[in-house]
User: Which sequence fits this backbone?
């Protein structure tokens, strides 16, 4: 992984423990030391003290799973897709006449984002849609941020 693939608040882990009991690494600052642009300030496994680690091939994403989505307020629908059922929808509704609909499918790890904007002056509706490969927790964090949704992911 490279530092330019991350943002503050992202969750990642070490390659050796990616699939079983990942050690949780939260990015606090990127490019922390001027002479070492790959160094990041991080919190490891919820420790209050921060550490400095190099972002390299040993740092990887935490796989996004149904369990993580459910822990964060997503629910499986009748078609087998996961949709947010709580505050994500509330945050995104009625902000300048726009609403955002999200759906995540396990098969292929695809996040389907649909944004509707209603022009309150003339009643017209414009719809934009993006299909995003979303395999890791930090990718979901980025997608939510791009949608203007401030949501702290719980692991």
Assistant:
């Amino acid at each position: 992984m490279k530092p330019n693939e991350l943002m503050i608040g992202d969750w990642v882990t070490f390659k050796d423990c990616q699939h079983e009991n990942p050690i949780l690494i939260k990015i606090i600052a990127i490019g922390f030391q001027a002479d070492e642009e790959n160094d990041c300030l991080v919190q490891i496994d919820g420790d209050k003290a921060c550490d400095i680690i190099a972002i390299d091939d040993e740092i990887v994403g935490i796989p996004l799973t149904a369990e993580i989505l459910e822990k964060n307020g997503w629910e499986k629908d009748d078609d087998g897709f996961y949709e947010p059922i709580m505050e994500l929808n509330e945050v995104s509704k009625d902000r300048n006449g726009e609403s955002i609909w999200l759906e995540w499918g396990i098969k292929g790890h695809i996040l389907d984002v649909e944004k509707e904007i209603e022009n309150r002056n003339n009643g017209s509706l414009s719809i934009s849609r993006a299909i995003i490969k979303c395999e890791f927790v930090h990718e979901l964090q980025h997608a939510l941020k791009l949608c203007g949704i401030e949501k702290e992911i719980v692991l």
Observations:
- The radius of gyration is 17 Å.
